[in-house]
Every structure is written in C-alpha cells, then in structure tokens.
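A note from the maintainers: we've had questions about how concatenated examples are separated. There is no special marker in the raw files; a new sequence line simply starts the next protein. For clarity in this README we add a label.
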Amino acid sequence: MKKSFKLFITFFLVVVPFVYPQSSNTTWLSSTYTYSKAFDVKVIDRYAYVVGWEENYYGNLFGSFSIVDIQVPSNPNLISSIFINDAYGIDIKDNYAFIAEGIAGLKIYNVANQFHPALIGQIILPGNAKDVKVVGNIAYVADEYAGLRIIDISNIQNPIEIGYFNSPGRSFDVEIRDTLAFLADLEGGLICLNISNPNNPEIIGTFPSSDTVVDIDLVDSLAYFTDGYAGVKVVNIANPSNIFLVDELHLPYWCLGIKVSGSYAYVAAWANGGLRIIDISNPESIKETGYYNTYGKSRDLDVVGSTVYIADWDVGGLTLINNDLINPIPTK
C-alpha cells in the first residue's frame, strides 16, 4: 500500500505541470506562495501588495496581507506577511495600505517599512467591505449589501464615514473619475454616482448586467467591466446619464478582475480560464489574443508594462505572467 501511494504522488507531481499551463502569447515568469489564498493585488514601484482570505478547518475565516519584492520578476521575494481578517481589496496611498476586510470594515496599515506593516486605523462599516479606492483624503469603499461608503481619512488614525449610497445590488468594486464614482454592483449592474458632494452621492446613470458586474476599469470615455459568465463589456461613459454598449466579448469562463493597459485588457477568469488577454485597440471590435491557464483560480490582477501580476486563488498565491505580444521572452 505504501509503495502504491508513493507511485501515485510521483505521478501527480510529474503530470500536473503539463496539464495546466497551456498558453498562447504568454510566458510564466514566477510564483510566490502567500499565507492565505490570494484575492487582490496592487503593484507600486518594486512591491506587490497582496491580500486574501480562506476558511480554516472549523469554518472560521482568516486572511493575510503580504508584501512581495518584485524588482526581479523572475525571482520575487516575500518580505513580509501578517495575518488579518478576511481581505478582498487593497489600495495604496503614500505610505499607507487601505484594506477592505469584510465585516471588519476598512483597515489602514502603515507600510513605510515594508518589512513590518503596522495597523494604525480602522472603521467598522455596516456591510461586508469588498474593495477600496483612495482619492485625496477620502476612501471609497464598496461594502457589498451596504453599497458605497465614503470615508474621511484626513485623520488616518480615526477615519470617519461622511456619506453613503445604498445600491440595489451588491457592491464589489468601485472606481473614481473626478466627481464620479462607478460601482460594480453585481446583479445591480454598473452604477454611476455624482460624488461632488461626498456627503450626499446621487445616482446619475446605470447600465444593466447580463450576469453580475464584478470589476471595472476606466480609460478615457470608456468603461471596461467583467460581467461574470457573460464575459467582458465595453460601454461609453462620456455622458454618464446615457451609458451605452460599445462592444462585448463572451468568454466561457467566470470573468472577475479586469485591468486595462495600453492596447490590452487583462481578465482574471477564475478556474479553467486563468488569464485572458483581450485586444482592445479597436474598442468597437474587441477580441481575445492570448491566455495563460494558471495553477490556481485567477481572481484579480494588476499590470505594469508587459508583466501581469495575478492574485491566484487556491494554490497559486501571486503569479507573474509576461505578455509576449508586448515584450517577447527570448527562447533559450
């Protein structure tokens, strides 16, 4: 029986690398394990800030906040990691990390010393914090069933809620453009709010979901968003009160995170889908042009140059993929 078990393990370790990393126009660079399953990543200069969560044996949720030195993309170095509440989204401003930590609300960490991040502020919110974007002295939090919460962070150690909008769906992502906030509200679709008065945000436009609007990125007069199993959509937001469809691409995967860089939109397509690369050089005719099936389940991502940093849920941790369409990796 012991011999059979050893043979099975050997076979599994040899076969797996050949089964999953099927790729087109992409090259795997490296992967780094994080203390919990990775859910979101933000890249600033030479560091990747990774947050995530998972469930322990007793059904309790826990999360982690990891900082990875990515100066050499082929050899990333995990320099610090701390256990936190279950974490879903992160933004960085100056020397502070703002993390959406579920029912623990918004937490603020001092990361001036990346080797020793330290909690310095927190605000409990009525919902389940899923994402955060920081602009000036205001943090905008997508708080799932509690919609958008607007937080004054001028006193970083004592953040205060100053406004909110109760959305019809479940807010999972928020992007800010000047005096406008765009909410990915799952079944509630894409929602545009006027936040010129942060104490009283007002809805000015919507675009319906076909499945669930999960993530958004904004480029000029266009919004690119993932619509769950309905794929990727491009809408014109030049007139926020009249948002209309420009093009859409159906993909046979659960499309979650999206990031636009240059002529490409990068999509985290969960299990089986991995990373999908969409050519958006003509927004009226977008098409898939590359992919990489990661070992885990691609949940979200960030992009710098030709390198894609993927929060790869399950076994992946942080995975780095090169877009060979921009910067081909020489063949040895």
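[label: protein 2]
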Amino acid sequence: MTTIRVAHRPALGVYTKIVAVCTFLLLLAGAMVTSTGSGLAVPDWPLSFGKVMPAMEGGVLYEHGHRMVATFVGALIVGEALWLWRIEPRRWVRVLGWFALGGVILQGALGGLTVLLRLPDAVSVSHAALAQLVFGLTVAIAVACSRSWLRDGAAEAVDADAFSLFSLAALACAAIYLQILLGAVVRHTGAGLAIPTFPLAFGRLVPPLDSFPVAIHFAHRVGSIAVTLVVAWVAVRALRRHRSLPRIVGPALLLLALVAIQMGLGAWVVLSYKSAWVTSAHLGTGALLFATALSLALRSRRYLALAPRPAHPPIRPHREPAGAR
C-alpha cells in the first residue's frame, strides 16, 4: 500500500460508494432467491422462459429480479474498473478494480451454471462465496477512494503491540469469511433446521454428530462463538489502545454491534423455522460484518504506523554464576 499523494475526486468517491451499496443489495436479492426456494423458478439461462422480461409473479419475481439487479451491478463494476484504470494513479487500487470486474464476470457464469445444472451444492456454495468476495472488493475500493483516506495526513499513532491491530483485523476478516462459507454450506445443503432447537441442540450442548446436516449446522454454531471471540478481541484492542482515533473507534464499535445482531438473527432463523426475511437478514448482516472488519483492517494500516523493530536483540548484562571467582 503506497503513500502516493492522490487528489480526492468527489465524483469517483461517490460512485464507488454507490457500487458497494448496490453490490450489497445484490447479495440480499440473491439471499431472497435461496430463502424462498426460487432458484429454479426460471429454469433457463441467460433468457427467462425464452424472454428478456417474463411475467414477474411468484418465484419468478425473486429469480428474474435477482438477474436484473446482477446485470445492473455488473455494469456498475465495469464502469468502476474502467474509471479507475483511466485516472487512478495507485496501482493497487486499479488492481482491486480489475479483480472486482473479473469476480463479477465469474459470478455471472456461476449463476448461470447454478440454473443449468439444477442447483448443485458445490456450484451454489461457490456462487455465494464469490459474491461475498466481490462485495469486499467494492468496499475496499470505496474506502481507498474516500475523502478521509485521501485527504488525511500521515499515520496518526504508533501500533507497538506484538500483534498489530491490522493483523488482528485481518484475522477477524478470515474468521468471518470462513463462517460465511460454513453458512453457505448450511443454506445450500438444506441443513438450516438440521438442529431445530436453540440454544441447546436436541437438549444437549453437543448433539450426536451422526449425519452431515447436523455436523455442518453444529459447526456453524461453534464458528459463531469463535467469530464473536475474535471480533471482541479486535474491538477491545482498538478501543483500549486507539480510543482517540475516531476512524478506528467507529468500525470497532460497529463490529461489536453487528456481531451481537448477527448472533440474535442466527437464533431467530432457527426459532422462526427459517423465515425468508430473517434468513436473508442473517446473510446480509454477515456481509456487513465482513465489510466492517475489512474496513477496520484497511484503516488500521492507513492510520497506524508499526513500531520499528530493533536492529539487534536487546543487550543483557552479563552475570557470573553464584560462587564463581
């Protein structure tokens, strides 16, 4: 990540935020397709019943609506990548734009395969996993093109801890993304109600793990506890060490709020017997949690300077063994 001085371009900054928001809405649209069981409501691709615009009724509303939103977001990301290529001097930001473009193209192909192959689990899970990565890329681009990122000066504080806030936030990103992958497997293998009770599992802390649906569902529950602990560690570190930096404190507080909401929604998914709206909100909150951790990682890299490592190990005074003369 270079320190090239770049002028803020308000139009580009606004556009990148619009792209990120629209990509998030696309995630929600896709979540509603799965939550309502509408994945094959339109059984052909790329047309819908041989038409560009079919009757928007029942599951067709969700599936074809998802395709329409995806087309719109794809066009936005094409525009973003080209705009960055033309005027953005930072190579790493341009690369993010090309990755987002490649990701959305591959995402469209996976979406088509999902329909043509009749919802195979592996393709459906890959489609869901890539969607989160594309969203993360659009968020990273929006952060890098924001007014605060470009107009603020050098790093405002030093991070002298053995594990930097950047490394911890990156760990949180990885943990959240792995949990998202587990959630995608749960959703697309129909394991959402494999354990239909909460907070206990069939009245136990650990249920009999004698079937894949129960095992993957329970792994997702255990993963939620692990993610909560990692997020709490990151947030507490940020609030204790850097409470004077609003650009660090803001995402840290948001992480705590989102992880609490996400835990509640996860319980509600089971207790509501997989209500489509609750399940989709659970997926959307997970995406926001991932984006917030990513934003905190980027901001900690931008606003916190790592303490320099010593050139040599510390020199310790020589002590003779007791009794030596």
